[in-house]
Amino acid sequence: MLIFVGCASVQVNENYDKVVTLPGIAMVLGLTVVILVYSLGHISGAHFNPAVSIAFATCNRFSWKHMADGSRNGNHGISLTVKDDSVQNSPCPPCPSPCKPKPETSLLTFSVPFMQKIMAEVVGTYFLIFAGCASVVVNTDFDKVVTHPGISIVWGLAVMVLVYSVGHISGAHFNPCVTIAFATCKRFPWKQVPAYIVAQVLGSTLAAGTLRLLFDGKQNVFFGTIPAGSNMQSFVMEFIITFYLMFVISGVATDNRAIGELAGLAVGSTVLLNVMFAGPISGASMNPARTLGPAIVSSQYKGIWVYMVAPILGAVCGAWVYNMVRYTDKPLREITKSASFLKATSRS
């Protein structure tokens, strides 16, 4: 079904005057995969791809003998839930409390879990910037084949899939604005902020460098963000759209009343919408790392201060405004008595 539906969309697009369009073909393939994973993932793992089966087998997540001893719950293949197999892979069986890992100390140490978080931020930011900026380059070099709505979809879907991929590891920030905004609200330790920001900028710069190498023989395309009009116009736009993004992130990621399972969908959709209407004006950065990486690689810094200042201010304001509206179901005197919104949250 995956091959039939995907190839049918390609054939229809060729035979009927590009009626499906390239973004349409991409959406058909993506939605088909989503449907089939939810339909068959609990039965076979929903690989549909020899590369996936081989990769899982090399990691001992899939039996080389086609799971002759296999289980039906799909935990050797694609799983729809996140599982903690730390106990399963432990060299010793479960033991009483004296053998439990020691709690983390207040000092920042480069422990294995922390380095895993940093690596997740580097890899996640890399693929986010690579996919999003690649869509810009391809659209410019190949006669607008991706289209502006297609670019918006790429950015939104990239954010969504990466949130679901590494959100449980690092929080899936990929953005210094998000990291700083959470820190100002005491939802992220300040001592880890510099490491996260360095990881995000590194991932963005590596992605921009990769694209520069891939498209070096093409037109001189700048895939960063520069103001299309005045700096002030872009400043205001970046402030507003980053405020909107961080407001949504605060809702789905920090409020227990929100449906956390839909966090990736909500955040990705917000990015898609912002890129759709703000892209032609400011480039819809919402992310200093997204702007800084391509700027470093291309040595183009026009209006760079706009994208370093406005998104951070917008994100901090968005996070704090959500903290204020979070308590609309409580009497005003309870809010004003609280030393901070976050302390009240911990009690509720």
What does this structure look like?
GO terms for molecular function: channel activity. The protein has 348 residues and is mainly alpha-helical. It folds into 2 domains: 2-79, no CATH class; 113-325, Glycerol uptake facilitator protein (Up-down Bundle), CATH 1.20.1080.10. The protein has 13 helices and no strands. It has helices spanning 2-15, 22-44, 50-58, 112-141, 148-170, 176-184, 193-214, 231-254, 263-282, 288-298, 304-325, 332-337, 341-347. The relative contact order is 0.10. The model is unreliable at 70-107 and 332-348 (pLDDT under 50).
Number of domains: 2
Number of strand elements: 0
Q: If classified by CATH, what would the architecture of the largest domain be? A: Up-down Bundle
Total of helices: 13
The biggest sheet amounts to:
none
Average residue pLDDT: 81
Task: Give a quick summary of the entry.
With 348 residues, this protein is mainly α.
Question: In terms of topology, how is this protein built?
Answer:
Blueprint: H1 2-15, H2 22-44, H3 50-58, H4 112-141, H5 148-170, H6 176-184, H7 193-214, H8 231-254, H9 263-282, H10 288-298, H11 304-325, H12 332-337, H13 341-347
Helix pairs in contact: 1-2, 4-5, 4-7, 5-9, 6-7, 6-8, 6-11, 7-10, 8-9, 8-11, 10-11
